[in-house]
């Protein structure tokens, strides 16, 4: 039984160690929503909203998520008794469209709360079976192919099990070719964050030459049908990220052969219940899944690591250690990666890492406390 008595929202500002550039924009400092959930017994846990500053990944952004959580999510959850955290998402979906990142921020917190109450690691509550997760790095668009090669080589030397190269028109074939020539056997992939259309089909087909593990979300952020046309032309598997917002979208992808791999981000699909449904379906269809990231702080990363411990997550996740992004994270211990590219799944209850509230206090720029009733 889980019942939320109080929900505190905060916005923190966390500067990135280096700017992160993708086809739809660049970030130098993250504005991150953190949530503190408390039940009637005083058990307190944290969760994170994954939306960025601009609505350039999905239609949501931190400011819309703030409104949605305050106006529509919190009133549906505060004071309501849930027999199990599985029951939260259906309540949020009833007569309340979209706003999946806002829903996920609270829904994931409810799972963390239940894990904390039961004294079990979040990974175990979700059904995770792995003790450590293979990790990939996501490299933002670089100023030149040479700069990309340096970063990609360094990532492989650090132990990363996969190197994801962000691409966009003008930053694609020559960049991927340079990385492949420098690292002939490395597990490489590309992520376009919807930078292309079907007019670019010949250009995208040139990427087949480089033996990529997959090409992530080449076409529009909400498209499935056109990806099917593209997949017919490509040997390289397409992986959908932005387009997979629900189990139904994953079903559409499979029905149309619009992609052969799914990147599951719990924050994008409305939380853990939806992630588990997509995971189970993909396993039943022999579709590999892996866990993506949204430049989360260590709190969101804990949620991703827990999810990635499920058996269907058979490809390395975008689960870089804290030091890749932050001078100092908001959790202790910080997230680390072994020299063979593995991130350990925590064995402690709940998130499994301690939240550094003093650090969060220093970084907080706004705060609101929502109560029951
Ligand atoms: O498309 O996977 C993406 C970051 C922000 C928005 C979209 C994406 C990303 C990443 C970063 O690739 C992955 C990470 O958090 O390490
Ligand atoms: Mg992506």
Essential attributes:
373 residues, alpha/beta, Enolase-like, domain 1, TIM Barrel, 2 domains, five-stranded antiparallel sheet, 16 strands, 23% strand, globular, binds magnesium ion
What can you see in these coordinates?
The protein is α/β, with parallel strands linked by helices and 373 residues long. Helix content is 36%, strand content 23%. It has 14 helices and 16 strands. It has helices at residues 62-77, 88-93, 100-118, 122-126, 145-158, 173-182, 201-206, 225-233, 247-256, 266-269, 272-284, 298-308, 322-325, 357-363; strands at 2-22, 25-39, 44-49, 81-82, 132-134, 136-139, 162-166, 188-191, 215-216, 238-240, 261-264, 289-291, 331-332, 342-344, 354-355, 364-371. Strands 6-7-8-9-10-11-12 form a seven-stranded parallel β-sheet. β6 (136-139), α5 and β7 form a beta-alpha-beta unit. α5 (145-158) crosses α6 (173-182). The two termini are 19 Å apart. The structure holds 2-succinylbenzoate (OSB) and magnesium ion. Magnesium ion (MG) binds at residues 191, 193, 216-217, 241, 263, 292. 2-succinylbenzoate binds at residues 22, 57, 138, 191, 193, 241, 292-295, 318, 320.
SSE topology:
Elements: E1 2-22, E2 25-39, E3 44-49, H1 62-77, E4 81-82, H2 88-93, H3 100-118, H4 122-126, E5 132-134, E6 136-139, H5 145-158, E7 162-166, H6 173-182, E8 188-191, H7 201-206, E9 215-216, H8 225-233, E10 238-240, H9 247-256, E11 261-264, H10 266-269, H11 272-284, E12 289-291, H12 298-308, H13 322-325, E13 331-332, E14 342-344, E15 354-355, H14 357-363, E16 364-371
Parallel strand pairs: 6-7, 7-8, 8-9, 9-10, 10-11, 11-12
Antiparallel strand pairs: 1-2, 1-4, 1-16, 2-3, 5-14, 13-15
Bound molecules: 2-succinylbenzoate and magnesium ion.
């Amino acid at each position: 039984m889980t019942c939320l008595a109080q929900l505190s929202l905060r916005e923190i500002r966390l500067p990135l160690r280096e700017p992160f550039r993708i086809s739809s924009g660049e970030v130098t400092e993250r504005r991150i929503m953190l949530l503190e959930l408390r039940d009637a017994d005083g058990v307190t846990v944290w969760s994170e909203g994954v939306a960025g500053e601009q609505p350039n990944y999905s239609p949501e952004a931190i400011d819309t998520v703030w409104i949605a959580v305050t106006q529509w999510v919190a009133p549906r959850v505060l004071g309501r008794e849930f027999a199990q955290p599985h029951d939260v998402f259906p309540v949020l979906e009833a007569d309340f469209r979209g706003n999946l990142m806002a829903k996920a921020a609270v829904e994931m917190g409810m799972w963390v709360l239940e894990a904390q109450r039961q004294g079990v690691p979040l990974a175990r509550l979700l059904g995770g079976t792995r003790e450590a997760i293979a990790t990939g790095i996501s490299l933002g668009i670089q100023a030149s192919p040479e700069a990309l090669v340096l970063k990609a080589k360094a990532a492989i030397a650090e132990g990363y099990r996969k190197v994801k190269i962000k691409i966009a028109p003008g930053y694609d074939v020559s960049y991927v070719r340079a990385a492949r020539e420098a690292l002939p056997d490395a597990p490489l992939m590309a992520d376009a964050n919807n930078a292309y259309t079907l007019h670019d089909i010949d250009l995208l087909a040139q990427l087949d030459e480089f033996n990529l593990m997959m090409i992530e979300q080449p076409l529009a952020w909400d498209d499935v049908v056109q990806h099917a046309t593209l997949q017919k032309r490509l040997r390289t598997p397409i992986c959908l990220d932005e387009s997979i917002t629900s189990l139904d979208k994953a079903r559409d992808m499979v029905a149309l052969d619009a992609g052969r791999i799914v990147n599951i981000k719990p924050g994008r699909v409305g939380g853990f219940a939806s992630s588990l449904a997509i995971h189970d379906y993909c396993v039943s269809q022999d579709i590999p899944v892996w866990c993506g990231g949204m430049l989360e702080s260590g709190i969101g990363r804990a949620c991703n690591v827990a999810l990635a411990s499920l058996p269907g997550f058979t490809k390395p996740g975008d689960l870089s250690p804290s030091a890749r992004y932050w001078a100092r994270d908001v959790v202790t211990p910080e997230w680390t990666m072994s020299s063979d590219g593995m991130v350990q799944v925590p064995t402690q209850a709940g998130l499994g890492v301690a939240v550094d509230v003093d650090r969060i206090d220093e970084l907080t720029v706004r705060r609101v406390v929502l109560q029951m009733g």
